[in-house]
Design goal:
The complex is a heterodimer. Chain A is α/β, with parallel strands linked by helices. In chain A, the strands form 3 sheets. In chain A, strands 9-8-7-10-6-1-4-5-11 form a 9-stranded mixed β-sheet, with helices on both faces. In chain A, strands 14-13-15-16-17 form a 5-stranded parallel β-sheet. In chain A, strands 2-3 form a two-stranded antiparallel sheet. In chain A, strand 7 and strand 8 form a beta hairpin. In chain B, helix 2 links the parallel strand 6 and strand 7. Chain B is globular. In chain B, the strands form 3 sheets. Chain B has a 9-stranded mixed β-sheet with strand order 11-10-9-12-8-1-6-7-13, with helices on both faces. Chain B has 2 domains: about 220 residues, HUPs (Rossmann fold, 3-Layer(aba) Sandwich); about 55 residues, no CATH class. Chain B has 7 helices and 15 strands. In chain B, about 25% of the residues lie in helices and about 30% in strands. In chain B, helix 2 packs across helix 5 and helix 3 runs parallel beside helix 4. Chain B starts with a strand and ends with a helix. By secondary structure, chain B is α/β, with parallel strands linked by helices. The chains are: A alpha/beta, B alpha/beta. Chains A and B meet through helix 5, strand 7, strand 8, strand 9 and strand 12 of A and strand 3, helix 4, strand 9, strand 10 and strand 11 of B.
């Protein structure tokens, strides 16, 4: 198995930008490569800009492989899979990593299938054991247990790592990777799938569980019409509107907007609670949010115990001011 | 249209369970086994496509212990015509690859235009069988499907894929194809009593590894690409954000490390003039890459 060498990271891009987690993944790949005393290679579709190459190298990539290809190819997971699989077959890396985003996971599955490789998805920790095998730990049974896997025989060993489990490491100034642009081979003449369109989600209409930003209101809003304020703020943050049970029972908002024990469980990037105290029935449905901000008149409101940032004040004074400043920001 | 739906019989993840001596144990001795939630949606979708076209056949296939019959019978009670169970002690501890290989052996022997799977199973949460299976059978693949429309009398499909932030990707897909379905694609129908009774009497064809033409090194652990080396309790969920700055005292940082990285969420409180508070909020959003 000695022909398999190097740690590779698949770098996703969207509209030529590096996607969230790309540099974090390079840093994680660097850690694994150091343990194995191997090179770290970043593989990405399309040409990278000088700035992107600099960022990728400073986070640990020693070589950047780019496959110049037109945009439709980058959108198609089917073609990306063929292109990447051919490149991987030609270089025989020991380990291939990607970020566990929806498309990152999809592409990794396809490549693993194409190569007959083993793949561990949605990992929270990866490491190397004494036999120099990639060890990957992930949650199973909806988070009630952790399972740790290895792929003893099949190569490359593949894993997708959760975005939450990755952290941005300090860049090493001065590092510079060699950038190699590859000829694309192996594009199949007939393909079975074709992307026709992307329909952007309307934060007002999408399911709360899919929302990345949630602005929620409670009893403190006082009336259904005051929810307009919350909606305005949500629109400016490109977020969705949620509510406590009290607000839903008062028919201020429909039941599909309710967060908590008898409503939905959300874990957005930002949860912004306005005029709600944070009763446990409500916080059960939002306490796993990445960042929690709350505004309440009562400085003893339980919501402040779990908030990263609490505002003690009158929401009818603060929110209009915030809306005004967000508007100015947009101009 | 001939549709095949892959079904997994899984422990009910709502059942209380804990990790003991490197294994998951269920508090009420035996786990309650149920059909994988996304596979149930796949069956419903298959039935809707078939009913919409007014022709075709739906066949269920499962790999697992003989108790997997229960999940297959649930599908039969929904109106599915046929069910197949791949059952062999040798299949125990197969990973996604070995499972897909056995499924592919059987599916390739049945006429099929469309294969449906759940995007992932509730127990292992791996989500790899669909892709392996599509590769082995040479089918077009679309994953995370939340809407299916049949075009040209069943020659092509237009499907919607679920992406982040509620975004949908519209994909044109030629047949034969394999789709993995995501939550929200449909609401499964209620089972009727006559349906349940009828399903009880239906025969379920069973095949072992020999009948599928699989050798012993193609199934179970020896046919697998990945291997579980350890089951452990989940790490306690992080309650707060770990603040990686040097402002904390060494004692506080030690406490953080000793506590497994857990720190109670330390709220910063803002108070005062609305205009100032609002601009501090704005600053906070920028710092946290929300804007």
């Amino acid at each position: 198995m000695s022909q398999y060498k190097g740690v590779w990271v698949l770098i996703e891009r969207r509209d030529d930008e590096l996607k969230d987690g790309a540099l974090e993944l390079v840093g994680e790949g660097r850690r694994i490569a150091d343990k194995l005393k191997e090179n770290l290679v970043a593989l990405t579709p399309g040409n990278v800009s000088a700035e992107q190459a600099r960022l990728l190298s400073q986070h640990g990539a020693q070589r950047i492989l780019t496959a110049e290809c037109p945009a439709p190819i980058r959108d198609s997971l089917e073609i990306s899979c063929h292109v990447f699989s051919e490149i991987i077959k030609a270089h025989d890396p020991e380990i291939v990593l990607s970020v566990h985003t929806i498309n990152g996971a999809d592409l990794a599955c396809r490549i693993a299938a194409n190569l007959g490789a083993g793949l561990i998805t949605a990992c929270d920790r990866i490491d190397v054991n004494e036999e120099n095998l990639l060890v990957a730990a992930k949650l199973i049974y909806s988070g009630k247990a952790t399972a740790t896997y290895v792929c003893p025989q099949a190569r490359p060993q593949m894993a997708t790592v959760n975005l939450d489990a990755l952290e941005l490491k300090r860049p090493k100034p001065g590092a510079s990777a060699e950038v190699i642009s590859l000829q694309i081979k192996g594009i199949p003449e007939t393909i079975g799938t074709q992307t026709m369109d992307f329909l952007p989600g309307n934060p007002r209409a999408i399911d709360l569980t899919e929302a990345e930003i949630v602005v929620a209101g409670g009893r403190g809003l006082g009336s259904a019409s005051n929810f307009k304020l919350i909606e305005e703020l949500a629109d400016l943050l490109r977020g969705s509107v949620g509510a406590t049970r009290w607000a839903v029972d008062a028919k201020w908002l429909p039941h599909d907007r309710q967060i908590g024990l008898t409503g939905k469980t959300v874990s957005p990037r930002l949860y912004f609670g306005c005029g709600l105290s944070g009763a446990s029935q409500h916080t059960m449905g939002m306490k796993n949010s990445k960042v929690i901000v709350a505004i309440n008149k009562d400085k003893h409101a339980p919501i402040f115990e779990i908030a990263d940032l609490g505002v003690v004040g009158d929401l009818f004074e603060v929110i209009p001011e915030l809306v005004k400043q967000l508007r100015e920001e947009e101009l | 249209m001939n549709i095949i739906v892959c079904v997994k019989h899984v422990p009910d993840i709502e059942d209380p369970m804990l990790v003991e001596k490197g294994a998951v144990t269920f508090l009420n001795n035996k786990p309650r086994m149920v059909i994988n939630s996304l596979d149930l949606l796949a069956i419903e979708e298959a039935m809707r496509i078939k009913e919409g076209m007014k022709r075709g056949q739906v066949t269920l296939i499962s790999l697992g212990a003989s108790s997997s019959e229960e999940s297959l019978r649930k599908g039969l009670a929904m109106g599915v015509e046929e069910a197949i169970l791949l059952c062999d002690p040798g299949f125990d501890n197969s990973d996604g690859y070995a499972t897909a290989l056995a499924l592919a052996k059987k599916i390739s022997a049945i006429p099929h235009d469309l294969v449906l799977c759940g995007r992932r199973a509730d127990d292992t949460q791996a989500g790899v069988v669909g892709a392996y299976l599509a590769q082995m059978l040479g089918l077009s693949l679309v994953q995370g499907v939340i809407n299916v429309a049949v075009n040209d009398e069943g020659k092509t499909l237009t499907v919607h894929r679920k992406l982040e932030r509620g975004t949908r990707e519209v994909v044109a897909c030629s047949l034969p194809a394999l789709l993995t379905v995501e939550a929200g694609i449909n609401t499964p129908r209620y089972l009727s009593v006559p349906g349940i009774l009828k399903a009880r009497k239906k025969a379920i064809a069973k095949y072992d590894s020999k009948e599928l033409g699989l050798s012993s090194d193609e199934v179970g652990p020896s046919g697998s690409k990945s291997k579980v080396i350890r089951i452990s309790p989940p790490k306690p969920k992080m309650k707060g954000l770990i603040i990686p700055d040097g402002k904390l005292s060494p004692a506080e940082r030690l406490k953080m490390i000793a506590g497994g990285g857990l720190v109670p969420r330390k709220s910063n409180m803002l108070e005062g003039e609305p205009r100032k508070v609002a601009s501090q909020l704005l600053q906070f959003f920028k710092q946290n890459r929300i804007l």
